[in-house]
Amino acid sequence: MKVVISDDYQDCIRTLDCYPALAKHFDVEIHHDTVTTLDAQAARFADADALLLVRERTPITAELLARLPKLKFISQTGRAANHVDLAACTARGIPVSAEGSATTAAAELTWALVMTAMRKVHLEAARLKAGLWQGHLGVGLKGRTLGIVGYGKIGSVVAGYGRAFGMRVVALGDHESSVAAAKADGVEAQTDRQTFFGEADVICCHLRLLPATRGMITLKDLTAMKPTALFVNTSRSEVVADGALEAALRAGRPGFAAVDVYEREPIYHADHPLLAFDNVLATPHIGYVEKDTYEHYFGIAVEQLLAWQAGHPVNLLNPQVVASRPAAG
Fold this sequence. Notes:
The protein is an alpha/beta fold. Helix content is 33%, strand content 15%. The protein starts with a strand and ends in a 20-residue tail after the last helix. A seven-stranded parallel β-sheet has the order 8-7-6-9-10-11-12. The protein folds into two domains: 2-102 and 291-309, NAD(P)-binding Rossmann-like Domain (Rossmann fold, 3-Layer(aba) Sandwich); 104-282, 3-Layer(aba) Sandwich (Rossmann fold). Helix 1 links the parallel strand 1 and strand 2.
């Protein structure tokens, strides 16, 4: 049985603790880049009995599935699977398993961006390598206001970091659940958007991408921020209205941004509009890219493959699927 894995950018899957079990039971084919055309994707996955998907890096569309008659199973790393056409998989009798979540890595990356951007660490490091000494005046965090958009698992951890650094932490109270969660943690909840965006020195976005959150952060929200403020997005690019962050930065409010997510990934050419701003700290979607998180995600994904091979699939997103052919031959 062949398992195809695409998008292993770091060539690291073979180094994970779970890989020997995968290689013992399957013929494993790994690719280290992303292909985006339908023809290229169909060619890459043509011989696959199963796919192990690396997060949301490759969309699995109905058109692609129609060209993969051998495909019998999909194992997703992590619980998010909006990139998989689940209805098309179900119609073709292809079970999809997905499980696993991790908060620490994304929260840590968020805080690294906050610290780096506020203290101008990246700019000073670049100056030193260029033979220059100090050139910027950074800004500390103690006594300043941290705003959290999306007070869930990750947002609450970041809020804890802010409190540890002596910041006033305020959650955007856009839903009763977020207000209740924030108050349970002793965090302020602000329901007035103008006040929330206007008072914050740093705003960190941790929204899940759902129909209700797509474009939720608007140009009006962003331009209400201080010209000295920092906007950080490590969740999903699409929760910010299209073009709003670029327009807000051009208007000077907020004065700075740090982003780890983009509407189209990967970016192989420095032509994304945000990369043209000197006041933007940009990283290539590395929020979850660290060893412990990979061990967690891929460990579960391999367990899902082994369970499917044994005829007892777990963590199914479409449990109504009854395989029309045996999982293993």
